[in-house]
# Entry
Amino acid sequence: MRQLRKVSVIALCVLLSLTPVTAFAADYTVTPNDSLYKISLLFKTPISTLKQENSLSADTIYPGQVLYVSAKIHTVISGDSLYTIAKQYGIPLTSLRQANNKWDNQILPGQKLILPGVMPTSSADSVIPYTNSELDLLARLIEAEAAGEIYEAKVAVGGVVVNRVQSPEWPNNITNVINHISGGYYQFTPVKNGMISKPASSDSIKAAKAAIYGSDPSKGALFYFDDSSTNQWLWSKTRTAYIDHMVFVK
# Structure
């Protein structure tokens, strides 16, 4: 059964870091004439893995579709160029352009670029610090909140937690964000009703890892709720994503 997610009002401050950051999972947008075969070659990932990680039952994909691919993400800093980034990571410039659908040379500090074929090498590649117990906690939250939703929604739930950890308006680690109580309200219903104690599925664990390593289908959201909600305050927030039956806002 889908449940209404209860959230409290809080101001959002967005900080743009100019420190290079790498991530585990990237969001690749399908372009015209793409195929799973071409994408598998670009990211050096088997077609079977692409299908499994994106819950694809067939080989058909369409322009504009977002696929999850295992790859580092580079955050542009002052002085970067596409050429120097490609050289830094040892990848062809044409592959860097293709992975990011970037055919001009203009890039800006803070912009994130997918590094095709470059895999993470350690936990240092995560966008926030975490422990194994926190990974498990996040996975259990995702399971409790989005067990009946598609994989993209699960990653987005994890993304909201990560976004809160990164925001100065929330606690600065996964455990404290998930267990946070504000104004007498639990921020996440499963913590209150005990559902968070149930083990996470392999999909939820994978979604938690994807979020911790940088994938964010919520597009910067700090809240989420079920689309059956009649709460006008929730619907009045700026919507960043609408995935399956879940609405993500900030």
